Amino acid sequence: MKGTPSKGKRSGKKTHVICRRCGGHTYHAQHKECATCGFGATKKIRRYSWQNKRFFGAFKGINLKRLAPKSAKGRGNRDRT
Questions:
Q1: Fewer CB within 10 Å of terminal CB in the chain, N or C?
Q2: Domain assignment present for 26
Q3: Is residue 51 included in any domain, yes or no?
Q4: Mode of pairing for the β-strands spanning 16-17 and 33-34
Q5: pLDDT digits (tens, 9 = 90+) for 31-74
């Protein structure tokens, strides 16, 4: 079965616990590896280029910290000049 009965078997178990390095609730207890910072798998902090904010295109030269949250994500009204 793959519906409700099998979902009940997952109750009471913790897959992720608090990470010692980043403090997030993303350290996998069985795999001994953090999903956020990579603790347990690598000495370097887990980081990818796609995690960076966008500093080109429509938001070039705009301070993203001063924008409204929806505008910073690319939604809402933009200045089209």
A1: C
A2: yes
A3: no
A4: unpaired
A5: 999 999 999 999 999 998 888 766 565 656 566 666 666 655 55
